[in-house]
Amino acid sequence: MRPFLCNSAYALNRITGIGLVVYLYLHLVVLSLLLRGPGSWDAFVAVARSPFFLMLDVLLFAGAIFHGLNGVRLALTGFGVGVKAQKAFFAVVLLVSVITLGVVAFLIFGG
Fold it and tell me: Which of 49, 51, 33, 53 is nearest to 41 (CA)?
C-alpha cells in the first residue's frame, strides 16, 4: 500500500474515532435535558429537526460507518487476511461507506 493511502486511512480512522467520542459526550449532555422535563426536551427536538442538525446526523453516520468498516478492514489485515490487498480493501470500504451514506442521507432528508 502506498504511504499516502496508508496515512490517509490511518488519519481518517483516528479523526472519525475522535469524532465519535465527542459525539458520545454531546449525546449524554443532550440526554440530561430529560431531567429538566418535557418542555426542555420538546424544545430540543424542535431544533434537532432543522436541516442543519439533520446534516449533522448524516455526518455522524458517515463517521460511524467509515470507522466501523475500516476497523473491520484493519482487524482482517491484522490477522493476516488480505494484507497484500489493503488498497483494494480500503477502496471497498470507501465505496460501501459512500453508497450507504447516500441511502441514509436520502432516508433522512427525503424519506
Answer: 33
62 closest CA partner among 26, 19, 10? 19
First to last CA, the chain: 39
Q: Where are the beta strands (DSSP E) in 1-111?
A: none
pTM attached to this predicted model? 0.85
Give me the domains of the chain, ranges plus CATH numbers.
Answer: 3-109 (1.20.1300.10)
Which of residues 1 and 48 earns the better pLDDT score? 48
Of 82, 61, 57, 58, the closest CA to residue 72 belongs to 82
Q: Return the amino acid letter for 90.
A: F
